[in-house]
Write a structure and sequence with these properties.
By secondary structure, the protein is α/β, with parallel strands linked by helices. Among the domains are: about 140 residues, Rossmann fold, CATH 3.40.50.10860; about 160 residues, 3-Layer(aba) Sandwich (Rossmann fold). About 45% of the residues lie in helices and about 15% in strands. The protein is built from 13 helices and twelve strands. Strands 9-8-7-6-10-11-12 form a seven-stranded mixed beta sheet. It has a five-stranded mixed beta sheet with strand order 1-2-4-3-5. α3 links the parallel β3 and β4. The structure holds glutamic acid. Glutamic acid (GLU) binds next to β3, β5 and α11.
Length: about 425
């Protein structure tokens, strides 16, 4: 009897399940493994009471989902965003399972978040919210259980609040419980730039296998947060021309190339780290989503999910898309891009530099011994290049798209370990 198929009303979860089932069937994965891996081990929902600056109390909803711990502790970020819900976290946790598996690191997949709008919260409100959330999820997180990290709208400061809260609750320092920490407090040199550096490395490796010179390539990058900004910098350092960048304040487009030094200075001086007010030679300000449709060779969507879909994918002019964000292309968008002949590097390969960097941080925390930034970056680039090559070669050999190749490679490793360990729970 074949395993019953889960469906979901949440688009991201439905997509995650469809991608999994599609690859699993093509691989001939056993039904028992399809059943196990299409479910999450744990979905935790918590209430997060926060005393606001005006004295009132607001109760936010928070989540932590552990999709799989087959390969090791669950691993994945915590995001602060109004769209966060349990299904979205589950979809992203599943993606983390495949990401860690494909990356060859000893982790399962998890994801969490708080449904909130961080842009309207004060720093003190954010701190109280972070601490309350950490206390609520404390029973299921730990160095050998589940190791959260930054994600959308969270960073080093939030990791310190989480770690400080749980450390004080437990009466011990446990540096490997969260990754993405500031260098000042158990973090690693290189981690901040790791995701963007990895995304750019995948783009540059694709140029290499296609025989293209980065200096002839015009690139457009959606999102100028942690991922987008360092993707842009790494690509520009390699000679590529960054013609467009964007954030929630709009698209900044210059066919002559964006002055990235100025763009970094702009976000540094903006209270909310936005590009608002940015300008440079030949720069034109366009609408928020225009960054996806400008004339360029490579497009790097490094912001939120679902941006290239049945309504937008057709307008893409780029010939190559490298997914810096998690899930920026919907299945409809995927099909439209494929029909147009656009080649795509999938998210859980392209943006795995973040979690590979987290693994380096965790390994250093376990040893209590810190690497140099050079060691960190060299190892990161080496692993990213190897992973890109593995997926590229598999896709060529089996004549499948890179997304399918990445899924098949990743699922196989988890399935093999599940078989090795056997079913108890
Ligand atoms: N949030 C990042 C991701 O989606 C990093 C996760 C981690 O380092 O655990 O891959």
């Amino acid at each position: 009897m074949s395993a019953t198929r889960r469906t979901a009303t949440n688009v991201l979860l439905d997509t995650a399940l469809k991608n999994f089932y599609g690859a699993a069937e093509e691989m001939g994965l056993k039904d028992k493994l399809i059943s196990i891996l299409s479910h999450s081990e744990r979905r935790l929902e918590v209430s997060v009471p926060v005393e606001m600056d005006d004295g009132s109390v607001q109760v936010f909803k928070g989540y932590r989902v552990q999709h799989s711990t087959a390969l090791g502790p669950a691993k994945g970020g915590i995001r602060f965003h109004p769209d966060v819900d349990a299904d979205e976290c589950e979809a992203l946790a599943m993606l983390m399972t495949w990401k860690c598996s494909l990356a060859g690191i000893p982790y399962g997949g998890g994801k969490g978040g708080i449904s909130c709008d961080p842009l309207v919260l004060s720093v003190k409100e954010k701190e109280r919210m972070s601490r309350a959330f950490a206390a609520r999820i404390a029973p299921i997180v730990g160095t050998w259980q589940d190791v959260p990290a930054p994600d959308v709208n969270t960073g080093g400061q939030e990791m310190v609040w989480f770690m400080d809260t749980i450390g004080k609750m437990r009466g011990q320092v446990e540096p490997g419980i969260f990754t993405g920490k500031p260098i000042l407090y158990w973090g690693s040199k290189g981690r901040n730039e790791a995701t963007g550096r990895g995304v750019a490395t995948c783009g540059l490796e694709l140029m290499k296998v296609l025989g293209k010179n980065p200096e002839d390539m015009r690139v457009s990058i959606q999102g100028f947060g942690n991922v987008g900004s360092y993707t842009a910098k790494t690509l520009a350092d390699a000679g590529a021309k960054v013609v467009a960048i964007s954030d929630i304040t709009g698209t900044y487009y210059s066919p002559k190339g964006i002055d990235l030094k100025k763009a970094f200075a702009q976000i540094q001086s903006h209270p909310k780290k936005l590009l608002e007010g940015f300008t440079c030679e030949g720069c034109e300000k366009l609408g928020i989503s225009d960054v996806l449709f400008v004339d360029c060779d490579f497009l790097f969507p490094c912001a939120l999910d679902g941006v290239l879909n049945d309504k937008t994918a057709d307008k893409v002019k780029a010939k190559y898309v490298v997914e810096g964000a998690n899930g920026p292309v919907t299945p409809d968008g995927d099909k439209i891009l494929a029909d147009k002949g656009v080649m795509l590097v999938p998210d859980f390969l392209a943006n795995s530099g973040g979690v590979i960097g987290s693994y380096f941080e965790w390994a250093q925390n376990l040893q209590g011994f810190f690497w140099t930034e050079e060691e960190y970056n060299n190892r990161l680039i080496h692993i990213m290049k190897g992973n890109f090559k593995r997926v590229w070669d598999y896709a060529q050999a089996k004549n499948v798209k890179m997304r399918r190749a990445a899924f098949m490679t990743a699922i196989q490793r988890v399935a093999d370990v599940e078989e090795l360990r056997g079913i108890f729970l």
